[in-house]
Amino acid sequence: MSVFLHTCNLNIVHAFRTFEQVWEELCADIRDGVLTSRVNVPSIRTAMAKLLKPDPELADMIHKKCTGLSNWYGLIPALFPNAKYVYGIMTGSMEAYLKKLRHYAAELPLLSADYGSSEGWIGANVNPKLPPEFANYAVLPNIGYFEFIPLREKTEDVEKDKIDSTFPCMEPKPVGLTEVKVGEEYEIIVTNFAGLYRYRLGDAVKVVGFHNSTPELQFICRRNLLRTINIDKNTEKDLQLSVEAAAKLLSDEKLEVVDYTSHVDLFTEPGHYVIFWEMNGEASEEVLKECCNCLDRSFVDAGYLGSRKVGAIGALELRVVSRGTFQMLLDHSVPAGGAVSQFKTPRCVAPANKSVLQILCDNVVKNYFSIAFGSM
Asked: Measured between alpha carbons, how far is 361 from 30 in angstroms, rounded to an integer?
């Protein structure tokens, strides 16, 4: 195998986290040529029985390589020595898994896949050697007709109090592919051969340059994933940076955040942010309390900070969920019609998404409230 790839890097990380837990069992299956009794689907057992033969030599080799690793660093090249790079979607909500993926990949390069969506392809990664965090995508003008709604003008007007932020704003006029400006942020509109007419993708992007005459875009966030209670506006990226800052406090206890999501609780007075965390072990009460405070402090949006200081937004709440909770979200999405390869952990769970919210709340084992801006 020269290329290790998957649609989303979440699935690669999830596969190797599972491998960490069952690798000895897998070695036993390979050595004996018989599937473990945990695999209880008859059709799978029948199919594998035709393929699986005893291979003690391979089992011993895998066992030796796994026991020789330090905290699973470099697992991918150890198991797949011919791999040249790891390829997958690594932007947006997938960016949160890059640290763990780099741990598994060691020195193997990470290549971010081209920019696409369920509605079609948008751009090609023309600088694949760039780190995934800085991946740029040249728009493919032959795929469809692209327009761009400027985002900065509307935001600046609200911030400068030129208009009341509670008053409905008129959208800026969309501009064409060749009319965008470097450094500006836009929302993408697409008209394509599939029948979509001026369809708003909901992606906020930044123009970072041009490849020949087509703009190069950097993905910023999903516009519908804004967390807001008062005048605060925190994006998926803001949440990621906040979680990364707080997760550093776990390093002394050799723990890490497996996955996370958020929720805006408007049923309390005042409303407050709720962060759900799953960890790979048990952290002390003192560390988790400080993590909660750090999460709260790390949201640097002026609207959020101002609202917290005057009490217009309540203390941030950290809810620690039991191990395997985010696997339950994946298991829940598949019977509902979702494909495993397309699954993305929701970074902001809306109140209307009652089933997902219920799974998270049912598995909370600890919760903490921030005192970063004073006691509750």
From this structure: 39
